[in-house]
Amino acid sequence: MSDAQMTTRAKDKSRWERFRESDFFYAFKRSPIALVSFTVVCILVLSAVFAPLIAPTNPFDPASLNLMNGFTAPMEPNAFTQETFLMGTDDQGRDVFSTILYGMRISLFVGVSAVLFAMVLGIILGLIAGYFGGWAETIIMRFADVQLTFPSILVAMLIFGIAKGFTPVEYRDQMAIWVLILAIGLSDWVQFARVVRGATLVEKSKDYVAAARLIGRSPWAIMIKHILPNALSPVLVIATISLALAIIAEATLSFLGVGAPPTQPSLGTLIRIGQGFLFSGEWWILFFPACTLLALALSVNLLGDWLRDALNPRLR
């Protein structure tokens, strides 16, 4: 086969075919940890997305609740209604399996939204600090250094309390999820900014950036279209790992009673509710939500660790 034919054949391949032949996909197929963690993440995410179709009942619809079903053990018929539930019921007669599916939707929404907000904010500030330097870099990075001296969960609690204090009382429950996203996002932007700043400092001294300046490209065009694509690989790795941390942070805040409202309970809220019945014998109210949170956070974290190793050229 001639070189021209090989070039034509390479162009005719679809993106999926090129992806299947890439080193990244080959490493993914050869890693049991990546395969298992990716499968678990897909199952949990799809279960949360299609919760209305999978869940036997809507646990947050008061019309569907029956207090007579309260404290029913898993796979055991209720003494009054004779109904059986896969993972039992809580004190209000809500199906624990259904509450997990709906609660996981809140946890994933808060986690993904908070990471996206932190990533966008960190990328913008990192690009500004690395490209312009001077007083802008000094202010941004010193502020980041100060924030790193405090645990992120304390920073999130502080931001959540301040933002909730400015929210009108009648809108606090409706705005609680968005305030939670703001609090977690503002507590996690630093690592994105530091990585993007370091990549910008390296890239801005290269010839293609100098050529872009010579042809009159604006600084923002150079940062977004030329420098940022070369810094996306580490940013995506950090985003994957940060997703697990954001989910845990949301669960921690909700467990402490300063996160998701009772009308929109997340996995952390369900764990807080179950903790109150643990020593009275109703272990399943705490056990199943806690196992779901552990499986979700652990699988996302393992997938992020593998992604970091797969995208690191030094380990190839």
From TrEMBL:
DNA damage is among the record's keywords: no
Pfam families in alphabetical order: BPD_transp_1, OppC_N
Keywords: Cell membrane, Membrane, Transmembrane, Transmembrane helix, Transport
Transmembrane segments: 33-55, 106-132, 144-163, 175-196, 227-249, 283-307
Cross-referenced SUPFAM superfamilies: MetI-like
GO BP terms in the entry: transmembrane transport
Tagged with keyword Magnesium: no
Highest taxon, organism lineage: Bacteria
GO CC terms in record: plasma membrane
Alphabetized PROSITE patterns for the sequence: ABC_TM1
Principal place of residence: membrane
Membrane-topology descriptor: Multi-pass membrane protein
Subcellular location: Cell membrane
Residue intervals of the ABC transmembrane type-1 domain: 104-304
Family: Belongs to the binding-protein-dependent transport system permease family.
Protein name: Peptide ABC transporter permease
Organism placement in taxonomy: Bacteria, Pseudomonadati, Pseudomonadota, Alphaproteobacteria, Rhodobacterales
